[in-house]
Amino acid sequence: MAHPDDAWAAKRLPPEEFALYAALDPRDREHAVAVAKELLSRFPDAPPEAVRAALLHDAGKAVRPYRAIERILTALFEPWLPNLPEKPLLPGWRGAVQVRLFHERYAAERIQDPKVRALVLGISQKAHSQHTTPRWAQRIASIDDLF
User: What predicted TM-score, i.e. pTM, was given to this entire model?
Assistant: First the structure.
């Protein structure tokens, strides 16, 4: 059973961003806090926007119910997932694949602060180009990969 530190997150997120965070499954909230705390542990000088991006990078997983079996199967079979468009969000198994592939982009669409949005988008592009991804997004992505 997950035990997210929601109080810790609430101190770092403005109300509209905390609402995005709070809509996440408890396991995702626990993961988000772990990533944000590890970011601060490694980089005490991390700007508030980076900490907020770490807390919100998975907020796109809340766009639809993302069941445990879907999470497991999409993670196990990620190299073989079908090439689906980002939108429209499809029903059933295909929608679960889209959430797996595009959740950071879905999160970024919901984030109003352009700095936080850009960092979350940078996390989604981690595999595409290390040269154009913002440094803090790279750091968050590398920590995210540990959890």
Answer: 0.90
